[in-house]
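Reposting from the mailing list since nobody answered there.

I have sequence plus structure tokens for a pair of proteins and want to know whether others read the tokens the same way I do. The first protein:
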Amino acid sequence: MNILVTGATGDYGSHALAYLKKFAPNDNLFALARSKEKAQSIKQDGVTVRLGDFSDKTSMVEALKDIDRLLFVSVPTPGIQKNVVDAAKEDNVKFIAYTSIFAPEYSQFGLEQNHSETEQWIKDSGIPYTFLRNSWYLEVNQAMFEYAQKTGKFPYFAGNGKIALTYKKDYAEAGARAVASGKFGPVLNLSSQPLTYRELGLATQEALGKSIDIEETSESDFNKDLASAGISSTWATIADTYQKYTKNGNNGQESATTADFEKALGHPITKLSDAIKDILN
């Protein structure tokens, strides 16, 4: 069987390929890259690289020739994912595992629109599928972990709002298992139990192995603190954005559960403190 993973030059795709080597050792693995330059970063043995760009349907038709199963790692750009679905149909791909979003019936930074649209295109294609409705990557809070490591402090302003956060490797493992088996059904809700940012601070403290100052603050002071410590402005902005999302609520996060996730994995999701420790190392 031929399995292709899109987004193979990113963290999720590269982790998924590594897991597929374990779960589908007798299958032929393919990785999609947008250019020859990008392809050079794919250095996993036994993986054949194909070139293709979601914005170019012709390139996707070429990339998906003779592919049986597709791990379709989504991108946020509106509209272009239809080219992937149309190419998959034209090439008679037999199964798609698509990385969608948890609770698409709620506002999720507008991403729910792109995912819902793509899910419908896949349904309309007639190709059997599993929608991997992923919640948020734990890594969106990398700035906070780095700040805590550097200063011994964990400021937050999200109040008692809750968010479901899981290590990216766990999502990639679930995606690999889904595309390898093709037997997980139409929808997998992949999330952790929701937690507050104070609870995230306690997990960070455990990861660091020392007591840290976990304190609720204002948004402006939060951003000033991270900037003064020299934390990446990009990561700090991301941490700020997800805290506002959490604080505002009405996002479906409180309904999250690990049930589907751990059933798909066949084991518990990675302990939060262990995942944070990995991110910092």
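The second protein, same order (residues first, tokens after):
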Amino acid sequence: MPLLAQGEFQPPGVRDFFLPPIFGSVTKPMVLVVLSVIIILAFFLLATRNLKIVPSKFQFAAESVYDFSRNSIAREQIGAKDFKPYIPLILTLFTFTLVNNIFGIIPIIQFPTFSHIGFPLALSVLVVYPVYHIAGIRRHGIGGYLKNQLFPPGIPKPIYLLLTPIEIFTKFFMNPITLAIRVFAAMFAGHLILLVFTMGGEYLLLEASAWLKPASIVAWLFAIAMTFLEAFVQVIQAYIFALLSAGYIGAALAADH
């Protein structure tokens, strides 16, 4: 979609996130989701095919990712007694979100998959949401789980008339939605900012008057700086997505609200 029309700058917008199909009804974000799964599988299979006591750099990288997901996310949020069954899920959520976010700064690819709300929403609603509710029900029984989540102890009973509807809305509706929106909003905004600086620099160089052309260098320098910032945000958002998911599981398993 052209950003230059009759010599006037057309700022990037939502339309630039809806890419035409590659073939049939298959779009670039769909291909990237599949590619991310292949990359993650290949990474861990290659890193673990010849394990050594003194790890190679590749093995060390894989072990570091695993250790971070296991101890810094799952163990911290779910608890030392209950976290082990959920390590594969948390590791998958972290790496899957990270790779799809990082796609946004990879040359040629340059598109963060999670800038389409459908992908993080599906991951949140179809994976994380049922997992933490099922975990809580299996631990406490459905009655005990609902009581634990909706009726916090130590609160005057009349307050439940106000508090319980809020808890229902938060636990069963807003948690999965906000989990998805956090990463979507960050990826969408970051990619849009990069488009503004890169396309703005192109416009200034090709279409602006001579005295404004040097400003294109400034725009591209900002684009480079924002790329590094965006890389940091992409990693942080993957961490937050996995952290909150583990936190929801830990809260569902906890004896108290």
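Reply #1 (J.P.):
I read it the same way you do. The first helix runs from residue 28 to 48.
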